[in-house]
Design a protein that fits this description.
It is built from eight helices and ten strands. By secondary structure, the protein is an alpha/beta fold. The chain folds into two domains: 6-74, Arc Repressor Mutant, subunit A; 78-269, Rossmann fold, CATH 3.40.50.2020. The strands form three sheets. The protein has a six-stranded mixed sheet with strand order 4-3-7-8-9-10, sandwiched between helices. The protein has a two-stranded antiparallel sheet with strand order 1-2. Strand 7 (199-207), helix 8 (211-222) and strand 8 (226-236) form a beta-alpha-beta unit. It is globular, with a radius of gyration of 21 Å. GO terms for molecular function: DNA binding.
Length: 273
């Protein structure tokens, strides 16, 4: 890359960092890329760090030593996240979203890229301090959430299937009990999709009793993998703790009241807040 003026270099460095979250970048790499002295690069990074933190974009961590460098950690301030979640809760409270069984229609929200980016950034903030190798979700509505989160954590997405696909090759399948319907169902994951000993973040769009997520946890055991965390977009608050199959999770929104007769819905911020 040709040598840039400092103003242009700052812009380019900022874009470079934003595109590579949770990636360690050495000062030498920056110095070679911009044909500048490490001292100048350090000064530029100090400016970017201040802007990132003042504007709530994230944190710029510096690692000292020969193998050190900088790592950009995307973050979302909790007060800003709460304002966005409050807007989402109001959208979820629209009466025409109510489906039989007390479920909410959320497909239109899950299809909005801007909204999913905001939600993904919240999940990435909630689990920023954990070591995560990949994100797991079950098809199909959890996929946009998983990919939005993976964008900020910079890790791959693993998709659990409800039906075995020939294109997946050999798979590991398990039976699990749906927490809400008490029916036995099947989920499967391709053997090549997940390495053993992986640290996995599970992301799901809606949790009632937690049967589907518990099924994914059991599936991870077959791969000798570990659960690094569980993130839920919306949880049902009408399930007793005794009925809930999962207790260690982070939710962004909580469905607290559903009246099928009056079609009244109440959604509040989840336990993350």
């Amino acid at each position: 890359m040709k040598k840039l003026k400092r103003s242009a270099r700052l812009v380019e460095m900022t874009q470079y960092l934003l595109a590579r979250p949770h990636t360690l970048i050495s000062l030498t790499a920056f110095a070679d890329r911009y044909q500048s002295a490490k001292s100048s690069i350090s000064e530029d990074l100090a400016i970017i760090k201040e802007v990132f933190e003042d504007d709530g974009i994230g944190e710029l961590h510096t690692l000292a030593g020969a193998a050190g460098g900088v790592r950009f950690i995307p973050k979302c301030r909790k007060d800003e996240a709460l304002v966005k979640i409050a807007d989402i809760c109001r959208m979820l409270e629209q009466p025409d979203r109510l489906l039989p069984g007390g479920y909410l229609y959320m497909t239109d929200l899950l299809g909005q890229p801007g909204l999913m980016q905001e939600v993904g950034r919240m999940f990435a903030t909630a689990f920023a301090d954990r070591e995560i190798d990949c994100i797991m979700t079950v098809e199909t509505k959890g996929i946009p959430l998983a990919h939005a989160t993976s964008q900020y954590l910079n890790v791959p997405v693993v998709i659990v299937r409800r039906d075995h696909k020939v294109t997946e090759g050999s798979v590991v399948s398990i039976n699990y009990v749906s927490g809400s319907t008490k029916r036995i169902q099947t989920m499967s994951l391709a053997r090549r999709a997940l390495k053993e000993q992986s640290r996995v973040l599970i992301i799901d769009d809606f949790m009632k009793a937690g049967g589907t997520i518990q099924g994914m946890v059991d599936l991870l055991h077959e791969f000798r993998a570990y659960v690094a965390g569980v993130g839920v977009f919306v949880e049902s608050g009408e399930i007793d703790n005794e009925e809930r199959l999962l207790h260690d999770y982070t939710s962004l929104a909580r469905l607290t009241e559903v009246d099928l007769k009056t079609r009244h819905i109440t959604v509040q911020p989840g336990n993350y807040f």
